Amino acid sequence: MAVHTHRTAPTRYVEANGIRFAYRRFGRDTGQNTGNTVPLVFNMHLNGTMDHWDPAVTDGIGQDREVILFDNDGVSSTSGEVPTSVEEMAANAAAFIKALGLAEVDVLGFSLGGLIAQELAIAEPELARRLVLVGTGPRSGEGMASLTPDAQRIFGARYENPDDLWLAVFFTPSERSQAAGLDYLKRFRLRTENRDPEVSANVAPAQIAALSKWGAPRDNPYTYLKAIRQPTLVVNGGCDVIVHTVNSLILQQHIPNAQLIIYPDANHGSQYQYPALFVRHVSMFLAGRDFG
User: pTM of the prediction?
Assistant: First the structure.
């Protein structure tokens, strides 16, 4: 079997729940199901595709285990319509994983993907072994009933250079963070052939509707987190203006077996600002090793 990377892994398809899911598999022991390692399934942020992941992260983690990227229902190369609830998104993600013939996976969720990962862990406790929650938050989290004021300003602005949007969403205004952002933008464009199409205009409104339902105020909002029994690693930047950093602390405080890492001078894309450190932390966590 050919050894693929983020840049070369072919886009494949599998059907489940009446949806034709687009996905890519690469990294160590891809598709072998040898039991030596558990695959890590990545769940993407708002308006993102498989090609918005950072190769420094995916290939880095792929050194130790298989990496699986996919487009959920209605996103980019996957058929269907985007659900307007996180619960349905999670059910579709679980159906996709099972359609690959996998009985156990680790799950990484970034931003919106982190909401899906939480719900998946609760609904499918035997399927999800460990969780990595990045730049995300709990139901009814702080500032999560709608886009934060900073997010509204960033997404509502006009940019002569479209890259300035990514730099504002994922990185802080500091010189160091912006330089890391420019490096990320170069990396995530390294795949030049067979890239995912950009999402349609129908994707963001449905995803925002799901986010609003998740973030709506309710009584005893964090009680559900006690049902996440999986070991969980929560990661964020200290200056996240998209999903406020305090929400990561809330997750860590209410999930029974959770650890928290906050990266300094980092915004919503902290894992892209510190890719080598993030890969090290995630790889150690998934292997059950202590940080040191």
Answer: 0.96
Separation between Cα atoms, residue 109 and residue 58, nearest integer Å: 13
The CA distance from 70 to 106, in Å, is 14
Query: Is the distance from CB of 238 to CB of 265 less than 8 angstroms?
Result: yes
Give the strand order in the sheet containing 40-43. Answer: 12-16, 19-27, 66-70, 40-43, 105-110, 128-134, 232-237, 258-263
In one-letter notation, the amino acid at residue 92 is N
Mention every residue, 6+ apart, whose C-beta is less than 8 A from residue 135.
45, 110, 111, 114, 235, 236, 237, 240, 242, 243, 248, 268, 269, 270, 271
Q: Each residue of 100-110: pLDDT tens digit?
A: 999 999 999 99
Q: Summarize pLDDT for 223-255 with one digit per residue, the tens.
A: 999 999 999 999 999 999 999 999 999 999 999
Beta strand pairing call for 232-237 and 128-134: parallel
Q: What is the DSSP string of 51-75?
A: GGS-HHHHHHHHTTSEEEEE--TTS
Residue 200's contacts (CB-CB under 8 Å, 6 or more residues apart) are none
Question: What is the torsional sign of CA 149, 151, 154, 155?
Answer: negative
Average pLDDT for the chain: 95
Please write the tens of the pLDDT for every residue from 147-182: 899 999 999 999 999 999 999 999 999 999 999 999
- How far is Cα 241 from Cα 243, in angstroms, rounded to an integer? 6
Q: Which residue has the tokens 């902290």?
A: 270
Given pLDDT bands bounded at 50, 70 and 90, which one contains residue 289? confident
Alpha helices in the chain (DSSP H): 55-62, 86-99, 112-123, 149-156, 163-170, 175-187, 203-215, 246-254, 270-273, 275-286
